[in-house]
## 1
Amino acid sequence: MRVLSGIQPTGRFHWGNYFGAIRQYIDLQDAGEAYYFVANLHALTTVRDPELLRQLTLDAAIDLVALGLDPNRAVLFRQSDVPEVSELCWLLMTGTPMGLLERCHAYKDKKAKGLAADAGLFTYPVLMAADILSYDADVVPVGEDQVQHIEVCRDIAGSFNHHFGETFVLPKAKVLESAARVPGTDGEKMSKSYNNTLELFEPPATLRKKIMRITTDSRPMEQPKEPQTDHLFQLYSLLATDPEREDMAALYRRGGFGYGEVKKALADVAERFFAEPRARRAELEAHPERVSEILADGASRARKKAGQVLARAKKACGTGA
Ligand code: ADP
Ligand code: TRP
């Protein structure tokens, strides 16, 4: 089985990204051959500051390794380091009906809001299809919002195969557990667009301050409360051990506690949970040459595979021998 996924470097990663996506990618690195990349070409449709894009791309790669992605097991690379993908994207684009892309939600939503869309945003799903098909990926772990794009990829690959003969492997989406929908500091879904995130690697003191400012309701301290529906408890649950979680749930049900206590406990378990990744990240930051090496090695392994697939596609459609 070959697993592949990409993650856009459009901001620093937060708890939602980790529990909703990154942790599950990392778990899959043992399930077969795994390819993970930082999708900086896709990010270019929103991040238009070159220094920022460069930095966010590098930060994303460092974060993934610090969080446990093992570059010896999985192939980790920058999307833009594999130019074969962009060439394949063109080959695919020539057979992609406009109507298929007009139905894709990233473009449709922007248009519905009356915002100007560019060709990059419109053809975004074709680049994503090229990303997937370039590595003969069977399984693509993604969030619910990306499932439509995998369907588009299957359509594009299927019609290429139909027209030019069997060339591409048709991938399957593996939808990530939606149970891991992480609430933000205001209780809504954590998202950088809502400005309610707890970032994975912000300095511990800043993180603690943000946790202490998480919104809570004004029910009296003595009143017993249902833990499962409380966002503070939900956050605590992600990071605590089983016995800690049970004790906290019992405290909620008993009542007679203050949210300040829970916030302090949350800050403590967060500090413990991320201590090791934080140390690994500091170590990598101190050795940028190690990160460059990982990305160069990943790019060369990825290019090797993508080159074979591109040659196959070029031969099939008549642009290559
Ligand atoms: P954001 O909403 O901050 O812009 P992205 O859309 O870049 O986050 O998310 C990247 C990945 O992280 C997606 O696969 C998405 O499913 C996952 N993710 C983001 N926020 C959450 C969340 N609050 N809970 C669970 N998963 C999330
Ligand atoms: N579009 C994806 C997202 O925003 C990122 C991505 C780019 C991707 N290429 C991919 C995901 C290929 C899976 C496979 O989350």
## 2
Amino acid sequence: RDIDVPLAVRHFYHHAGWAELVAGEFPGMVPHGVCGQIIPWNFPLLMLAWKVAPALAAGNTVVLKPAEYTPLTALLFAEMAQEADLPPGVLNIVTGDGQTGAALVGHPDVDKIAFTGSTAVGRRIRAATAGTGKALTLELGGKSPFIVFADADLDAAVEGVVDAVWFNQGEVCCAGARLLVQESVAEDFAGRLRARASRLRVGDPLDKSTDIGAIVHPVQMARIEGLLARGADEGALLWQPDIPVPEAGCFLRPGLVTGAAPASVLATEEIFGPVAVMMSFRTPDEAVALANNTAYGLAASIWSEGIGQALDVAARVKAGVVWINATNLFDAGAPFGGMRESGFGREGGRAGMRDYLRAAAPETPAHAGPPPPEPAPIPQPARPAPEGIDRTPKLYIGGRQARPDGGHSYSVTGADGAVLGQVPLGNRKDIRNAVEAAHKAAGWSALSGHGRAQVLYFIAENLSARAAEFEGRLAALGQPDPGAEVAATVARTFHYAAWADKFDSRVHATQSRHVTLAMHEPFGVMGLICPEEAPLLGFASLVLPAIAMGNRVVAVPSQGGALAVCDLYQVFDTSDLPGGAVNIVTGAAEELAGVLAGHDDVAALWLAGAAGGGPVRAAVERAAAGNLKPVWVPGIADWTTVQGVAAQGVAAQGAAAQGAAAQGAAAQGEAFLHRATQIKTIWVPYGA
Ligand code: NAI
């Protein structure tokens, strides 16, 4: 009555509109094809609407598997679809349990999987789809912070807690289950919460005066009780009001836990029941540190009457959705989804539609098309660098040239087979050092778009001034058109410099009395595996959009063309690029890709060239299941292509390009900016 039905109705109207607009608003993009969708039991109709409406509006067909506890809603919905004359086969519902879900995930003719459910199953699905080329979005669990500052309207915040964690029995993925309350008001707040909880009614969910209904299933009831018992063993105190509950059935009183240490089970694990865990903090910095002390990043709720304080914390919490002085607000026009181990992809609004579309030519052929290019042979150590004299380029880490940890290098040969030089053979330790340097260079992400643009323009100028040197290097490496490649690299640098302050975030039209911001935020540290083809331009095509959007990167240049990239160190050094914003580790791409994929401090990974195909991709995507980082395979056939520019246009810039539209995914364009950012949706009170 309050959530499922009205929001589902709104969702279908909103997406009916997208069906009208999709061709014009997403030029060059097409539906994936068949979407396999798997949903949980907590909002059976709403979860269905979030999945089915955008998929159909974008032109996909759907096989949906509802949760085993709640299949009937989906079957009733199928009857409505028949009444609406949806053509047979467009929407298919298959009921069943996890095995049915796994069969859907594994089916070779499914082009995209969209899943909502537990993080554990999300990981399994990430691993199962690794290397298949299936598109994937995951909306997983959370342990979302609900932050109350001393200057908050405490009574409003108490009502917020009721909506955040006691509503729907706490069976809400974005439940504000971790109450972080400023110490000076913590006792007062806990007292008000206890008083309020004592007036909640637990019972028949069909009685409209009931606040808390039944837990979905005895299995879930046992799970919650098990977690509470473990919490009690760890010394946490559970308070529950002395209110009546029906004797039969899966009913639980609302709970407030205190005395749980930040690392304890109740403070870290998703309970998915009507239990709030309260902790206190002293300073805003401590609140942010506690809020982000979780592997999840789904939602956050911030309560303060101080606009500066609320918006400052909103910017610093790692969460896909942030509510200010509110909680659990949803709208079809507002992107919803997580960061970190809460998954990737968005549902709702423009970003949600984008996730049901792909570039016109397949990013990577899932079940047909040409075989992926052969990976380059793994370079063998040539010889340890001789003591004293060392003419090999080094790695580029933290703005300094660094010797490889192993002390090995490999030979790069030119077009005529002669050895052109030695390049360091980076290893796991070098990647770890590079990630650490990138992590420390947070100042780059904090710079304004204008500030980043200035650095990129400077890089373009310095590169241009040394064009002849780079052309010579590319010619020696046997590149077909060195002049065009260098010119295209300079042009691409100017292009992303221009974008640095123009890839605007959006304000979405959602509910009255709120502005809903969809902010483009950088991931933080990204890993980039660069293509063999066009060693300089390919490297630039990945690094530039990523850093223009404020990410710090660890890039692995192509093995064969690494020498051309090592020549860039001096360009970076003389262009005011802060140390650590771009880190370069040369070596065996597939090995280094695996290390980046498994690193918990790397938030997103792009695989280009040979690494994007076949077994390397499969291994990398499996390793990425660890912290659930998104992996993107741009699937570029020609690195000179530019979105929306026909052949002559690029040729005028010095590159022999094909029209990108005819070739599919372009090597320069907005897709790179979208993949270099994640959306944080922030709901701010506005107007009367
Ligand atoms: P679950 O993740 O196992 O189930 C969600 C859906 O995935 C169901 O449709 C299920 O049949 C399907 N599924 C299960 N195993 C699968 C597999 N290997 N491949 C494909 N599909 C599979 O969640 P479950 O067991 O119902 O609940 C366990 C816990 O997960 C809850 O206590 C809660 O903490 C969390 N959860 C979180 C949700 C969220 O929205 N964040 C939703 C549901 C559960």
